[in-house]
Amino acid sequence: MKHLIIDPLIILLLFSFGVGCEKNEESMETSAFEAKFFTKRNFDAEIGTCTEDPYLGYNYQVGEGSSTLLGKFTAELFFCGNGSDYKNGEGVFVAENGDELYYRVPSSGEIGHVLPLPYADPLYELYFQDSFTFTGGTGRFKGASGGGKTDSYVDLLVDGDTTQFIPEHRTDHVWSGTITLMK
Prior knowledge:
Elements (H helix, E strand, L loop, with lengths): L1 H19 L7 E14 L15 E11 L3 E11 L3 E11 L4 E5 L7 E2 L1 E2 L9 E3 L2 E7 L7 E5 L2 E6 L7 E18 L1
Antiparallel strand pairs: 1-2, 1-12, 2-3, 3-4, 4-5, 4-6, 5-9, 7-8, 8-11, 9-10, 10-12, 11-12
């Protein structure tokens, strides 16, 4: 009779250990990230303002591109700048299915530098190679982290003529790094 009472208790105890051992942590996976896209300055929307001297120039840009991770996407970016430096950049890549991937450029606490090209180019006058950081997102990008470096080139002037500024100038980007997502 003792044997019959102990066996159900052992089974109950083993079952409760098995339930308690379920994995509650989300598993994460890191992979390479590369996005090729362009942005153009857009004066149609005033999303924010810049109040920190000398970074008073508000710049809002929109564009589109493609990435192995996102597929085709649209891009939005805004930052505060003073012509040669910029900071507090935030943006979003929106995949075709609506999932959003948020980023900061340059990374928090950093100042980005827009520099003249060190060589003559028929299209671009300026470039920047600064860090970016993923700050989460929606859908499959919820909890996204990681980052990398920008490789971005600015077409600011009509045929390189310093008297003919393009207000809605174009910037071509190739951003590469790593991204960590929940599995």
